[in-house]
Automatic annotation (TrEMBL):
One of its GO terms (molecular function) is galactokinase activity. The lineage of its organism: Bacteria, Pseudomonadati, Bacteroidota, Flavobacteriia, Flavobacteriales. Residues 284-366 form the GHMP kinase C-terminal domain. The gene is galK. This is Galactokinase. Keywords: ATP-binding, Carbohydrate metabolism, Galactose metabolism, Kinase, Nucleotide-binding, Transferase. PANTHER family: GALACTOKINASE-RELATED, MEVALONATE KINASE/GALACTOKINASE. It comes from the Bacteria. Residues 94-182 form the GHMP kinase N-terminal domain. Its EC number is 2.7.1.6. The keyword Hydrolase does not apply.
Length: 394
């Protein structure tokens, strides 16, 4: 499948630029087992990179233009590396311009390139295609022009692009996962310090399967930034009331209750969810490493309830899908995954029941919403890398 994507991208490069690409880079999407919306609130998250990628076919040129051909949009865009860039009306181009801008602000210089890219990460499905686009571009610039950026800096550049050029005040989880992913390994990331450790997802006999509701979201127009604002309002009151506490995750539920009337019900609900979720991630990491899969499932279900009722980022279609999935035999956990407002659910299902569950939920979802849900059985994979030239299938 990876070979198909690479060949497809190479062929798009050839057709558009009428020449041969020199290097190939792959930037993956991600799943998140648990820890939703806590990455901008000093929380822990448990994501992993997956075997769905944006592939970049690249050639260095002698001029000062960086030219893109976005095969999936059948669209192109170019800019001059000597000029200061500002956001443009072409949405996909902003993710790339934002990366370039962040690199320019670091005083790093890059030259001309031709780039064709295409993707197997479904867009607007909560699998972080935008982080893969940002970080893939930052990574390839770093490799080709020897910019001496480390992996954390690449992730932060991706996040900065999202903030400044795409207008979404996201956390660091998606970019970090795309850059730091490791085959078979889940990342336990402390979003405050960016310290992280890897561990094997010990779910023998069970699979993590994604059901795509095909309800598309873009975080620019969804309530993502609003949620972040609610949380910031709550944090401000907490910070003023308890200045001795430095990190959001160190506020207790008693403190939150004391601040409730001052902060108001909406920020209270959001902060309540976040403090609970941060604790759930620690419990889930322990459950995963001990192979306590039943308990992991329970935690996923609690997260869905919290995301739906306290953080209010689910939607009817996802609530329906999760509710029906949990009625199926062999399902231990189901929840909406990622930023929300549509996209995928992540489901923890006994191996021998997977096909049956897929059949049933596909039917029920079609009957209820007349939508053909999509199913992704993903593998936990390595983060961004350059595909070795001699491995390219022509
Ligand atoms: C989106 C954001 F980009 C992430 O930073 C994170 O907040 C996630 O939603 C929710 O956990 O993917």
């Amino acid at each position: 499948m990876q070979d198909n994507l690479i060949n497809h991208t190479k062929n798009s490069f050839r057709a558009f630029f009428q020449s041969e690409p020199e290097r190939i880079f792959l930037a993956p999407g991600r799943i998140n087992i648990i820890g939703e919306h806590v990455d901008y609130s000093d929380g822990f998250v448990l994501p992993a990179a997956i075997d769905k990628y944006i592939c970049f076919a690249v050639k260095k040129t002698e001029d000062a233009e960086i030219s893109f051909f976005a095969k999936d949009f059948n669209d192109s865009f170019s800019f001059d590396v000597h000029e200061k860039q500002i956001p443009v009306s072409k949405i996909w181009a902003n993710y790339l311009l934002g990366v370039f801008n962040a690199i320019q602000e670091l005083g790093k210089e890059v030259g001309g390139l031709q780039i064709a890219f295409s993707s197997t990460i479904p867009m607007g499905s909560g699998l972080s295609s935008s982080a893969a686009l940002e970080c893939g571009f930052a990574y390839l610039l770093n490799e080709i022009f020897d910019l001496h950026l480390n992996k954390k800096e690449i992730a932060v550049i991706g996040q900065k692009s999202e903030h400044t050029f795409a207008g979404v005040k996201c956390g660091i989880m998606d970019q970090f996962s795309s850059v730091f992913g490791k085959e078979h390994q889940v990342i336990m990331l402390d979003c405050n310090s960016l310290e992280h450790q890897y561990f094997e997802a010990n779910i023998d006999g069970y699979s993590l399967v994604l059901f795509d509701s095909c309800v598309k979201h873009t975080h620019l127009t969804s309530g993502y930034n609003d949620r972040r604002r609610d949380v910031d309002n709550g944090k401000k009151i907490l910070g003023e009331k308890f200045p001795e506490v430095n990190k959001f995750r160190d506020f207790s539920f008693e403190m939150l209750d004391e601040a409730r009337s001052e902060m108001g019900e909406v920020p209270y609900k959001r902060c309540f969810y976040l403090l609970k979720e941060i604790k759930r991630v620690e419990k889930a990491a322990k459950a995963l490493s001990e192979g306590n899969i039943e308990y992991l499932g329970e935690l996923l279900n609690e997260t869905h309830t919290g995301l739906s009722t306290e953080f209010e980022v689910s939607c009817d279609e996802l609530d329906f899908m999760v509710e029906q999935t949990l009625k199926e035999e062999g399902v231990l956990g189901a929840r909406i995954m990622g930023g929300g407002f549509g996209g995928c659910s992540i489901n923890l299902i006994k191996d021998e029941k997977v096909n049956r569950v897929i059949e049933n939920i596909t039917d029920l979802y079609k009957q209820a919403y007349n939508i053909d849900m999509k199913v992704y059985k993903v593998k936990i994979s390595d983060g961004i890398n350059e595909y070795q030239r001699n491995e390219i299938v022509i």
